[in-house]
Amino acid sequence: MKWAGFVLKVLLFLVCSAGGYFVAAQIESLAAYRWAPWTGLFVGSLFAVLALSVERIIRQIPLKALIGGTIGLILGLSVAKLIGFGFANWQNTAVSAAIYVILSCFFGYIGMVLGSLKSEEFRLPNWSFGGKGSNKGGSSSSILDTSVIIDGRIADIVETGFLGGTLVLPEFVLQELQHIADSPDPTRRVRGRRGLDIIKRLQQEKQVKVRIDREDFENLTEVDAKLVALALRMGAKIVTNDYNLSKVAEVQGIRVLNINQLASALKPVVLPGEILRLLILKEGKEHGQGIAYLEDGTMVVVENASRLLGKEVEVSVTSILQTTAGRLIFTILKDGEHSRH
After folding, report:
1. Which domains, ranges and CATH numbers included, belong to the chain?
2. How many whole angstroms separate alpha carbon 212 and alpha carbon 220?
3. Separation CA 129–CA 125 (nearest Å)
4. Are 167 and 198 a contacting pair, CB within 8 Å?
5. DSSP assigned state of 236
6. How far out from the chain centre does Cα 75 lie?
7. I need a surface site. Which of 44, 111, 189, 322 has the fewest CB within 10 A?
8. CB 290 within 8 A of CB 310
9. Phi and psi of 211, rounded to 5°?
10. Kind plus residue range of the DSSP H or E element containing 224
11. Residue 128: predicted pLDDT
């Protein structure tokens, strides 16, 4: 598909450039000038660049907005045509033509904007052509909430290629991040700025497309409520690490990707009796205990290891405790570690 798209773009440049060259060469008033065909080639190339730019913009606009904008444009031009009949009989044709152009631009623009904005009120379905995977404005889109952006792990997940499609950044989420970044509280200010840095990092990532959604819900005040409303309207997923938002969204039938659940699912499986090699980093709360960590950050309590700070030891897993804060693994020194040290 990538090669096909590249070939089509090359053909577009060739056709537009060649067309501009030959059109300029055939104009009698320009035929005497040697530079005319080359100017035509340059103008044709500019049209190709313009077409590709318009294509990029259209790709980011939902299908419903495109259809609504097109219908609004047609209605606006029709209104301009009707009003223009009143000036058609003017003796000064230049003035009547200018008035008609102005009316067409005015009503055409108003119709297109109103049509694209109000298309949602008609509850038009999210059309999908060519199967489920082709719905680029719906199920392949993932809406990011404020917490997951500040968390930062979303950027690492995207870089690994586990999350694709289009990442949607609602404007009200960006406003909340900016508000946090401008907070007088130093901790909140750092978190807000970190979130803005993560957004910039996502925009530079080639694995996904990042689109800023300008839609707002003036009848709603809470950001979480707006996220749910936007997800319902777009038919998109919500990416978050907020437990309450996850439950509210799931109740309303929205698919949720919770980063914390993903992290828990990816933690290595450790069974009682398994042998681990760990670095003792600090003393535990109880006398004689040493504390170590697995690669994913899981805390490991090692009995009788407080005297082995800064050393690597082999331990045997005795039990695993699941707490609200995560897993806690209890171990003992493997036979021979006592005498070795």
Report:
1. 1-59 (no CATH), 62-125 (no CATH), 132-265 (3.40.50.1010), 275-340 (2.40.50.140)
2. 19
3. 12
4. no
5. -
6. 33
7. 322
8. no
9. -125, 130
10. helix 223-234
11. 43
Structure tokens at 341: 């040290």
Nearest-angstrom CA–CA distance, 161 and 159: 5
Q: Would you state the structure tokens that stand for residue 28, as one six-digit string?
A: 């009698």
Strands 299-303 and 166-170: unpaired
Say which residue the tokens 């809406």 belong to.
143
CB atoms within 10 A of CB 140: 18
Q: DSSP states of 51-106 as a string?
A: HHHHHHHHHTS-HHHHHHHHHHHHHHHHHHHHHHGGGTT-S-HHHHHHHHHHHHHH
Asked if 262 contacts 291 with a C-beta cutoff of 8 angstroms, the reply is no
- In the chain, which stretches have pLDDT less than 70? 1-6, 24-35, 57-63, 88, 90-95, 118-139, 324-326, 336-341
The pLDDT of residue 56 is 72
| Strands 237-240 and 256-258, bridge-based pairing | parallel
Nearest in space to 73 (alpha carbons), one of 45, 46, 105, 108: 108
Model pLDDT for residues 192-244, shown as the tens digit of each residue: 899 899 899 888 888 788 888 888 777 788 888 888 888 888 888 899 888 88
Per-residue pLDDT at 134: 39
Q: Which residues contact 249 (CB under 8 A, 6 or more apart)?
A: 227, 228, 231, 238, 240, 256
Total length of the chain: 341
The DSSP-derived string for 164-187 is: -SEEEEEHHHHHHHHHHHT-SSHH
Summary count for the chain: helices (H), strands (E): 12, 11
β-strand partners of 169: 212
Q: Is 38 exposed, middle or buried (0-12, 13-18, 19+ CB in 10 A)?
A: middle
